[in-house]
Fold these 3 entries.
Entry 1:
Amino acid sequence: MTTTAFYDSLCAQLAGLLTGERDWLANTANASALLFMELPDINWAGFYFLHGQELTLGPFQGKPACTRIAVGAGVCGTAVETGQSQLVKDVHQFPGHIACDAVSASEVVVPLYHGERCIGVLDIDSPSVARFTDQDLAGIEAFANVLLQHSDLP
């Protein structure tokens, strides 16, 4: 189980890792690696970036993934369309779920904003149903905020 203290430490690790580096590509690559290394019971962690009405795969850790996702499609596209983080306890119950990896059973997606403009999402998958809690969501949102504060994103 991940706790507030765990996420505080994870955010501090990210801030230290990104100190002195503002490049969005390098920072999202390191952020996805840190998540994949430190978060227990996950099988994918990465980014999709918004180009027009489509999300395009960015830096990630895990099995190869879907390259493009339409806004409004699946969990990632829904996060962009609604502007709201998505906490999905069972992806097989999510209407329109896109199964990039059939092993994934739960997912959390946080939209990333540069000012008022959505630029993409942070997406994390787990092979376990109900892996993510509201506490995880709050911690992952805080992690995303650290990344955004330390990066010159597009």
Note: The chain has a mean pLDDT of 94.
Entry 2:
Amino acid sequence: MAKDFPALNAHHRDFIGKQHVFFTATAATGTRINISPRSTDLFRVMGDNSACYLDRTGSGNETAAHLKADGRMTIMFCGVDGPPLILRLYGRGRIIARGSADYARLLAAEFADTEPLGARQITWLDFDLVKTSCGYGVPLMDYVGERDTMDRWAEAKGPDGIEAYWRDKNMVSMDGLPTGFGDQD
């Protein structure tokens, strides 16, 4: 049965801590809905009603464009091993620009001042609703490990190649919205 909570509790935090993948969902008026999978290795619970993740380069930057235009965001975790559960965080997100003071502070405090090659921004979510549901329809799966594909891609591109890729692929969304990428907070 679905249950609503105004904030994360200890059980929710424990569940999130055991997951290996989460999904972000965003949209803005007149745009396609975007759903992106992410590894939890760069996800951080920041409080009872806030979380963030260090966002690495992607083929687009839909999340940033939607947050700039609208702000609504949902993050979803699915228990694919262990007891079934789906947990969603509903709220408003924002992008913390790479190179900004807030980015540097969070990178130092939450990510051991380690910036993987290709890190482009930090995505922050302030949420006012935590919703759980049964997860009975989620298949059981075994976690094998993290892929090294992103690291190998970033290493092959190098810093200059990544910056060129950002200019080419991350400045506007597929629907033509500006992402704000490269702006300083």
Note: The mean pLDDT is 95.
Entry 3:
Amino acid sequence: MHVLIVGGGVVGLACAHALADRGTTVTVCEAGALGGGSTGRAAGGIRTQFSTRVNVELSLASIPVWESFADEFGVDIDYRRPGYLFLARTEETADAFRANVEMQNDAGAPSRVLDPDDAREYVPELRADEFVAATYSAADGIADPHSAVQGFAAAVRDAGGDVRANTPITDLTHDDDGWTAETPDERIEADAVVCAAGAWSSRVAALADIDLPIAPRRRQIAVVEPEGDLPEDAPLTIDLDTGSYFRPEREGTAIVGGHFSESDPDVDPDRFDEGMDIDWAVEATERANDCAAYFGPETKIRNGWAGLYAVTPDHHAIVDEVEPGFVVAAGFSGHGFQHAPATGEAVADLCLDEDACDVDVSALSLDRFESGETLTERNVA
């Protein structure tokens, strides 16, 4: 069997690796550089603290791969586990936190609810009086997405897979013999196609007359020099009610970010501003300072960037065979990097009609948007 994967980010390459590892012939076509889309501009978070079970399970199934990545793939992804700290300003959010932790614990994640004063153990300068509850999980952490891309790509090639950068797919057709993909230079015949093109996935699917409710949204990250001494082992901290987050970076810097409007317009993924808006960076830093007293007026904004989220209406991925031989793994709404290993196994199951993946991804089918059985992921940052 030959499977064509469209998209050479971490999700597409994880799918290619899972398929190649099961003896499948794979070809990966990436329109630009490997990892040059959303993956290369991701914050690198890996967490189990989600508000839906399928997202928790995708994380739990992926973490063992991240833990053993250096040994298995020969690439150091700088995987660290300082944890994630979620903060609630309202009782409504706190109630949701308690329900989330109960579900997360039932799934196997070691998260727990904290009193805001107790959360100062992890973030000493937390403005605890501003919050009514917190949750923390030591299973959560961060890693380097770019290094993960290189590791997966090398493993796919070692397994005999064909990984091509700068190879856009310009057309997709289907008949009884399978799928035909056109590139600027050649025609590729395949038994199945995996659409893992991130923010470009709707465009790829449209080549096959398939409509995907995936919108590209611009998201920004700023690198700052905090005014205060943010500990290097502080967790990635998310003020969920304001949409703000921060974490320590290298050499005394920190990353601050967040999205502050659900009405952000869709953008053209081929023509969006990859730079950081200074007004946004100032607001993000001020919001971080409202959360913890590290980001006062003496904080220096060093640089930053913008990338793309591939967003679905319910902030969950589509992982589904949407047409015979056409599998989608996209729309992760900012969670694609961390869920890539488990997604790869689920996609391999869909392509090969097997049942090896531990995670039931049926809730991530495309038809949920027509049936009304959508999910609600509240823990979005």
Note: The first helix runs from residue 10 to 21.
